[in-house]
């Protein structure tokens, strides 16, 4: 039976840091579902459909490994989404120690809701640990260079979005 994992997030937008975690998650699971979340408590720049589309476009760069990835949007509890998709692992990326407390609490809550689903933490690589979607959006909003943080496709979408806002 293939080991299926879920990598959830808002992906607003997907960054090279997210892509790093995706590549490394493929070493742990046979099938990876990237769950683009609607209910995050955040106010995303892009709507759910656009965020899903950007993730789908970025994973194409993984070549044949992309065939082991599905991108799905979801709303509601993450553990229910995992159950519905037959996933037994939740993949979470940790950029810094400050991420750990929140992620640890979430993992404990998810374990209480479904003890059959494990959370696996992957630490961000040295090259990407400082990248966050929030900072990328702020830099793009101020017309800064985001080319080392996101794909050219995502950069194009962000620039277009903030041009419309001006």
How many helix segments?
Answer: 6
Largest sheet: 5 strands, parallel
Tell me what the CATH architecture is.
Answer: 3-Layer(aba) Sandwich
Roughly what is the average pLDDT, rounded to an integer?
Answer: 95
Helix-strand category: alpha/beta
The count of domains is 1
CATH H level, superfamily name: HUPs
H/E order of the elements? EHEHEHEHEHH
Overall description:
- The chain is of the alpha/beta class.
- It has a single domain (4-165), classed as Rossmann fold (3-Layer(aba) Sandwich), CATH 3.40.50.620.
- Helices cover 42% and strands 19% of the residues.
- It has helices spanning 16-25, 48-59, 78-84, 97-113, 133-141, 152-165, and strands at 4-9, 31-37, 69-74, 89-94, 118-123.
- It has a 5-stranded parallel beta sheet with strand order 3-2-1-4-5, with helices on both faces.
- The radius of gyration is 16 Å and the shape is globular.
- It starts with a strand and ends with a helix.
Comma- or semicolon-separated keywords:
166 residues, single chain, Rossmann fold, alpha/beta, 5-stranded parallel beta sheet
Summarize, please.
With 166 residues, the chain is an alpha/beta fold. The chain contains six helices and five strands.
Describe the SSE topology:
Layout: E1 4-9, H1 16-25, E2 31-37, H2 48-59, E3 69-74, H3 78-84, E4 89-94, H4 97-113, E5 118-123, H5 133-141, H6 152-165
């Amino acid at each position: 039976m293939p080991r299926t994992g879920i990598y959830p997030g808002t992906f607003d937008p997907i960054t090279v840091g997210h892509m790093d975690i995706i590549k490394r998650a493929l070493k742990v699971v046979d099938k990876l579902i990237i769950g683009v979340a609607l209910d995050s408590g955040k106010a995303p720049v892009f709507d759910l459909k656009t965020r899903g589309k950007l993730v789908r476009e970025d994973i194409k760069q993984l070549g044949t490994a992309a065939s082991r990835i599905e991108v799905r949007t979801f709303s509601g509890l993450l553990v229910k989404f995992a159950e519905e998709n037959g996933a037994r692992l939740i993949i979470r990326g940790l950029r810094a120690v400050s991420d750990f407390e929140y992620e640890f609490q979430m993992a404990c809550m998810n374990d209480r809701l479904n003890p059959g689903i494990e959370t696996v933490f992957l630490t961000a690589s040295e090259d990407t640990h400082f990248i966050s979607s929030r900072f990328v959006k702020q830099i793009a909003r101020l017309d800064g260079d985001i080319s080392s943080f996101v794909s050219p496709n995502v950069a194009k979408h962000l620039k277009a979005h903030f041009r419309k806002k001006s």
